[in-house]
Specification:
CATH architecture of the largest domain: Orthogonal Bundle
CATH superfamily of the largest domain: Winged helix-like DNA-binding domain superfamily/Winged helix DNA-binding domain
Order of helices and strands: HHEHHEEHH
Helix content: 55-70%
Number of helices: 6
Radius of gyration: 20 Å
Oligomer: single chain
Structural class: mainly alpha
Distance between the termini: 20 Å
Number of strands: 3
Strand order of the largest sheet: 1-3-2
Length: 168
């Protein structure tokens, strides 16, 4: 079998320095962003973990537990634990339908709906802090580049799953 020669933008050693790693930088941005946002949302008893779920439910309420899990990017067992906490905090209710007892649908409580009007501006404020000194065009470029990285990695992950299926 012929070996494939792969050329990289930089040497492998270049990426061993954390400041050169997109993954490392993205992780630090995520942690810093989450930490600052949580300091604000906790004033209304909403943790960073709960925020992720509420944000999705504000966009579309009454989705299944599985759909919510996919949209938040969490595994279902993690989502189940998070939903128990959200329910205990009075943010959601879970319901099954007569048509399909296997599916659990998630609904916001009136209290959680009102929180969107309070918490969304906090999120906007953190975005303003994070992009301070950037032009609108730079922010749009940053978002577009991050989406491209996400798409590239998702595509590669999907290709790896297909390849591993072939070997099995």
């Amino acid at each position: 079998m012929a070996s494939k020669t792969q050329s990289f933008r930089h040497s492998a050693e270049y990426y061993t320095h954390p400041e050169n790693s997109i993954g490392y930088l993205a992780r630090i941005v995520f942690r810093s962003f989450s930490r600052l946002l949580e300091r604000k949302t906790l004033t209304h008893d909403v943790s960073a973990g709960q925020w992720r779920f509420l944000r999705q439910l504000w966009r579309e309420d009454g989705i299944t537990q599985r759909e919510l899990s996919e949209r938040v990017g969490m595994r279902e067992p993690t989502t189940v634990v998070a939903l128990k906490g959200l329910e205990k905090a009075g943010f959601i209710t879970r319901k099954k339908t007569e048509e399909d007892r296997r599916k659990t649908y998630i609904y916001l409580t009136p209290h959680a709906r009102k929180l969107e009007l309070i918490l969304a501006p906090m999120n906007a404020e953190v975005h303003e802090v994070a992009t301070r000194g950037m032009t609108d065009k730079e922010v749009e470029t940053l978002q577009a580049l991050m989406r491209r990285v996400i798409d590239n990695l998702a595509e590669e992950t999907a290709n790896l799953a297909v390849l591993s299926d072939v070997k099995a």
